[in-house]
Each structure stands twice: as structure tokens, then as C-alpha cells.
């Protein structure tokens, strides 16, 4: 065995696993399993299987997840840059599958960076409903925002705030909540040896403290009848069954929805509960048995713990409880200006339907950090939001993007976003992305942003070019080179001319912008996203 596992870890696992311990230890002689998950926001599972550059072997607990062979480098293919798949450890695909997200859900992913599970949730939502993705650590939220953008997610808000503050802003707001908790990462040892040192320096009890706080805030944000999934990539029962048992003792309106144990999932470790947490009732212990474990000696994956919990009550039906963000449209009566949706009028127009509950009602204290927006800081600011004329943006929509986009128009300085929620709902939170980034108004022109391109389908834009993934042209584009493209290769719809912004696709799937003129395609692929030689 190449890995030197800490002896306290080995001793603990021996007690926990009893006769299964030897098999568990043998699993460390195997290389870790690698997986990819098809991004069904951009391509159907069936179409991906047809064009996949890899031999795919289905992952039993995730319909769109596949094992790929050892030695493959899935991050080095143009399809990765076109967001056709996410590289994800196979066991990590389980929690979202068990959360049961459906289009129209209002979902919170509370510990979301770098975004594996958020991109999975977004694929389940299919652009309908709301995804709020949060992470406490600022640097990690950058990767989270980038991944959501790369995967063409339109209806996500990225926050960098504490669970307590988010709970103040969104009491009983979400139909589904995922807590993929920070943990001691025992399931990561085989994949990432640096986790061994991390484990030796910290204790499961430190994590249990953090997890308890996160859960405490999360329960306040779930609607009656809603579903909460708690997951970790560690084996330690203190952070898994222990956490769930405590929650059930404290919140009798929460119940475990038992996971089917006839397949890859093993039952929760209730014997450990009986030995170490005597105050936990037998009824709660029985419920905890319904949680699920993926063990590395039983399945092809690094291991995970998952608990599915439901809060008692009748879940308000989506169409009665939530407004869909309105379509963005050009209001010609307002002189070609965009009809900026404030959300307020919408609510009063649709009296009695209510959206996410307004935190200011019944919370007269207000307060908070007063709308720090990283989106503004990172992407530049300028004039006060409302002084900006959106005309260049509306002209772009009308002329180049004739379809209907949904969302509340939110501006920060000269940056324009479409948000799945009205701006005032985010006022007191630290917002990294208030929604789908449209672009920037600069010198009275609209400069479309990269995330606008990655989330568009080829047929939604008036001018497109499709580059072949295999003839080197796509990689040259991804490296930032200018390409020579004769006009006949452009696909131009209607009466539009060839000159202007072009949606650059790879085998038909959007990857970014280019600007075409006189046979040359100027490259607009952002510097920070480019294909590098290593
Ligand atoms: C297991 S990782 C999440 C992985 C992520 N769900 C994914 O699938 O890509 C746990 C995350 O929790 C974040 N975190 C730690 N403490 C937190 C807290 N109190 N509130 C929210 N996030 C926290 C960490 O920064 C880390 O990114």
C-alpha cells in the first residue's frame, strides 16, 4: 500500500467497520476513479454519448455520469471548454441525484465552491426556477462563478456570505437545499494525498462544530414540505450520522427520507450512534439508518455520506408560490429603453401569489453590510446604476438576439445582468454574481460578456460559426488566436450582415465570442479562460 494512512484513522476505521475493515484497506491499493457528468444544459446525454471522445461507463447512481478510463485528460479537450461536461469524482454525483431537483424549484447550494454540485443542480433546473450558490470563502467563489459561467447557467446567483446572514435574508424561502459540508475529507485520501496532512492537523470535532452551525442556519431557510440534503466526503460518523441525529432530536418537524439500500448505498452507521451518543432516541436512530453511504470497498468511487431530510408540511406548488422572472423586452413606448423589471410592481400586480418571502416583512431590524457587490468591484463600476441608458443593450437584443430571454434586469455601474430575482432581494448580501452576465455598456455601445455567449444555443444568435473540434481550429480559437474565416462559413440569419459579433461554437456548441470583418475573426475569448500549453 503506497499511502501512509495515519494510525488513529486506521484504528477508528477498524472499530467502525469491523469485519469489513480489511476490504476497506485494500481499496487504497486501487487508483481513484475518474468521472465526467454530461452538462444537459448544453447537450443531451444521448448526443454526448454519440460524440464522446472517451469510452464511457455509466455511474450507477447518476444517469448523466460516466466513468472514464485512467489516463484520460478530460480537461484537455475542446468539449470541456465548450462546457459539455463537468469533471467530477463519481461519488460526489450522488447528493444532487438524491435531492430530486425539478425545473421551477428554488434551490440553495450553501457550500457550493467550486461548483460541481451547483452545475449539476442547474442542469436539473433546465433554466427554470432559481439557484442560489454560496460559499464562505471569497477565493473559492471565483472558481464557483467561473464554473457556472462555463457551463452556461442562466438562473444562478452567486453569493459569498455566511449561512446566518443568508438565513436572515431568505427565511423559509427554498424548496430544496443542499449542504455539501466542509469536512475532514477522509474520502479524499486516495485522490489527493495532501488531505492526509490536513486530516492530521484538524479534528472531526472541529468540523462537526462548523457543520452544526451551517445546519442550524439551513433549517431556517427550508420551506415546509421542502427537501434538504446533507452530504460529506468523509467517513467519520461524528460529521455524518451524529450530525443528522442531533438535527432530528432538535427539529422534530424534519424526517429522514430513507435511501434505497438495495443498490450501491449502504445504511447509516447506527451502531456507532448507540455507542457514542446515548441520548439519541431509538426512533431517531432508526431514522438515521435510512441515510446512505457509498463505501470505496463496495462501489467504484471515493466514498460519500448522504442524508435526505424532509420538513413536514405542504409544499406550496411552484406556480402558485413563485413568479417566473419576466421576459426581457424592449418597451418601444419608453423610447426604445428596456422595461426594467423592479419585481415590486410584479408582486402587487399578482397580489396573493408572493415570491420568495420578503425578508423585510416581519424583520424590522434590517441592517447588514449593505449590498457589497463583488460583481461591481471585479468588473469595474462607474455611474450610479440608474443613470445608465440601456439602449445599446436593447438594440443588441433586438438586432442580434431576437429570442425571448427571461430575467430581472439588474445593473451595477455599466454592467448588465439578468437575474432570476429582483435586485432588492439581494440588497443586504455579499453578491458575486446577481445572475447571468449580459455585458457592459461602454462608450454608448454594448459589449457582450463571455457568460452571455456560453449560455446561448447556436440558434439563438443571429451570426454563428462552428469550428471543428478535431482539426486544430477550435484549439487555436481557445488559445486566443485570430482566425481567417471566409464569409461563406458564417451562418447568418435573416437580413443581418456578416460584420459584427459572432457566436463561436465548437461542433455546434457555443464557446465564446468573436468579431468578424472582411474574412477575419477577431478573437474575443477571455484571456483568463484560454487554453494553455501544459
Ligand atoms: C466539500 S466543499 C464543497 C464542494 C462543492 N459542493 C462542489 O461540489 O464543488 C465545502 C465548501 O464549503 C465551504 N465552507 C466552509 N465553511 C463554510 C460555511 N460556514 N458556510 C458556507 N460554506 C462554507 C468551503 O469553502 C468549501 O468550498
From TrEMBL:
<dbReference type="InterPro" id="IPR027391">
    <property type="entry name" value="Nol1_Nop2_Fmu_2"/>
</dbReference>
<dbReference type="Pfam" id="PF13636">
    <property type="entry name" value="Methyltranf_PUA"/>
</dbReference>
<comment type="similarity">
    <text>Belongs to the class I-like SAM-binding methyltransferase superfamily. RsmB/NOP family.</text>
</comment>
<dbReference type="Pfam" id="PF01189">
    <property type="entry name" value="Methyltr_RsmB-F"/>
</dbReference>
<feature type="binding site">
    <location>
        <begin position="111"/>
        <end position="117"/>
    </location>
    <ligand>
        <name>S-adenosyl-L-methionine</name>
    </ligand>
</feature>
<dbReference type="GO" id="GO:0008173">
    <property type="term" value="F:RNA methyltransferase activity"/>
</dbReference>
<dbReference type="Pfam" id="PF17126">
    <property type="entry name" value="RsmF_methylt_CI"/>
</dbReference>
<dbReference type="InterPro" id="IPR001678">
    <property type="entry name" value="MeTrfase_RsmB-F_NOP2_dom"/>
</dbReference>
<feature type="compositionally biased region" description="Basic and acidic residues">
    <location>
        <begin position="343"/>
        <end position="361"/>
    </location>
</feature>
<feature type="binding site">
    <location>
        <position position="135"/>
    </location>
    <ligand>
        <name>S-adenosyl-L-methionine</name>
    </ligand>
</feature>
<keyword id="KW-0694">RNA-binding</keyword>
<feature type="region of interest" description="Disordered">
    <location>
        <begin position="318"/>
        <end position="388"/>
    </location>
</feature>
<dbReference type="InterPro" id="IPR049560">
    <property type="entry name" value="MeTrfase_RsmB-F_NOP2_cat"/>
</dbReference>
<keyword id="KW-0949">S-adenosyl-L-methionine</keyword>
<feature type="active site" description="Nucleophile">
    <location>
        <position position="233"/>
    </location>
</feature>
<dbReference type="InterPro" id="IPR029063">
    <property type="entry name" value="SAM-dependent_MTases_sf"/>
</dbReference>
<dbReference type="InterPro" id="IPR011023">
    <property type="entry name" value="Nop2p"/>
</dbReference>
<feature type="binding site">
    <location>
        <position position="180"/>
    </location>
    <ligand>
        <name>S-adenosyl-L-methionine</name>
    </ligand>
</feature>
<keyword id="KW-0963">Cytoplasm</keyword>
<feature type="domain" description="SAM-dependent MTase RsmB/NOP-type">
    <location>
        <begin position="24"/>
        <end position="312"/>
    </location>
</feature>
<dbReference type="InterPro" id="IPR023267">
    <property type="entry name" value="RCMT"/>
</dbReference>
<dbReference type="InterPro" id="IPR031341">
    <property type="entry name" value="Methyltr_RsmF_N"/>
</dbReference>
<dbReference type="InterPro" id="IPR031340">
    <property type="entry name" value="RsmF_methylt_CI"/>
</dbReference>
<dbReference type="Pfam" id="PF17125">
    <property type="entry name" value="Methyltr_RsmF_N"/>
</dbReference>
<feature type="binding site">
    <location>
        <position position="161"/>
    </location>
    <ligand>
        <name>S-adenosyl-L-methionine</name>
    </ligand>
</feature>
<protein>
    <submittedName>
        <fullName>RNA methylase, NOL1/NOP2/sun family</fullName>
    </submittedName>
</protein>
<dbReference type="GO" id="GO:0001510">
    <property type="term" value="P:RNA methylation"/>
</dbReference>
<dbReference type="GO" id="GO:0008757">
    <property type="term" value="F:S-adenosylmethionine-dependent methyltransferase activity"/>
</dbReference>
<dbReference type="GO" id="GO:0003723">
    <property type="term" value="F:RNA binding"/>
</dbReference>
<dbReference type="GO" id="GO:0006396">
    <property type="term" value="P:RNA processing"/>
</dbReference>
<keyword id="KW-0808">Transferase</keyword>
<keyword id="KW-0489">Methyltransferase</keyword>
